[in-house]
Fold:
Amino acid sequence: MAEVFFVGTVAGLIEESITLTLQTGIPAVTNKIIGLSDGYLPLPIVPNWIVNWETPEAAVVTSTNIGIGFKGLFFDKLIGEEEPTVAIPDMVYKMSTHPDAF
Structure:
């Protein structure tokens, strides 16, 4: 009797809670943090260094992968941002020959 209750009711409530957290809670908190940072991430291991980052496209989530591309510019906040003068090559998001790597 306890097993049926646990498997049916309690497990269902746990699953609903996890789904709600993953689909609503984590995105809301993440969006708030990103909004507050204005796209700047300090690097505490290197004084005065900042990463200005952006995600030009929405993340792609499948049953086997989570993919998100972002652009970042490292700079010294005492000097300011300086865009590179050469074209930066695109980074490979997923290599089908090495599914465990970028």
